[in-house]
Every structure is written in C-alpha cells, then in structure tokens.
TrEMBL record:
Pathway: Amine and polyamine degradation; putrescine degradation; N-acetylputrescine from putrescine: step 1/1. The keyword Cytoplasm applies. Belongs to the acetyltransferase family. The lineage of its organism: Eukaryota, Metazoa, Chordata, Craniata, Vertebrata. This is Diamine acetyltransferase 1.
Length: 95
C-alpha cells in the first residue's frame, strides 16, 4: 500500500503521520486523503546502546483497523529507524 508521509511540528515537537494513497474507505466509496492513524515518536540516546527511537503513541481509527494500515505505519517507522541509524526501537504497551 502506498503511503503519504506528513511531517509537521506541534508544540515545538517534530511529528510524522502516514496516510494511505488511493484508498477505498470501508464505509463505502473512495476515501479522500485523511488521517486515519498515527505514530508519535521521538529519538533519545542511551550511553550504552546509542541512538534510540521511542514510540510514544500509536493509533488507527476503529473503522480502519484490520486493513493493514497499522502494519504499514510500523513498516514505515522501521525504515525511519534504519535511515536515521537508530540502534533500537522501543515500544511499551500499557493496559
């Protein structure tokens, strides 16, 4: 699935979002470009490991789940790790 990557700054923090291109809405008909999910992350540094990517928040709207959008966002995020030479990506699930 082709994705649009939207980068923006909010409150002094750099943020990135991914949106599907040419996507058909599960609600019927073609979907306009809209944000249906996001991954909020930042880079940090550990003196023993090196540069880390920390995934702060991850969300896909309920009606768009099960369509592979979350998987695509995580795949794009792994490419961010590789291109920025991060040694590790970290995600903690709380529940």
């Amino acid at each position: 699935m082709d994705m649009i990557v939207a980068k923006f700054i909010e409150g002094g923090e750099k943020k990135t979002t991914h949106m599907p291109k040419n996507y058909t809405s599960p609600l019927g008909g073609p979907a306009e470009h809209c944000i249906v999910g996001f991954a909020m992350y930042y880079f940090t540094y550990d003196p023993w490991i090196g540069k880390l990517l920390y995934l702060e928040d991850f969300y896909v709207m309920a009606e768009y789940r099960g369509l592979g959008i979350g998987s695509e966002i995580l795949k794009n995020l792994s490419q961010v790790c590789i291109s920025d030479k991060s040694k590790q990506a970290e995600l903690r699930a709380h529940g």
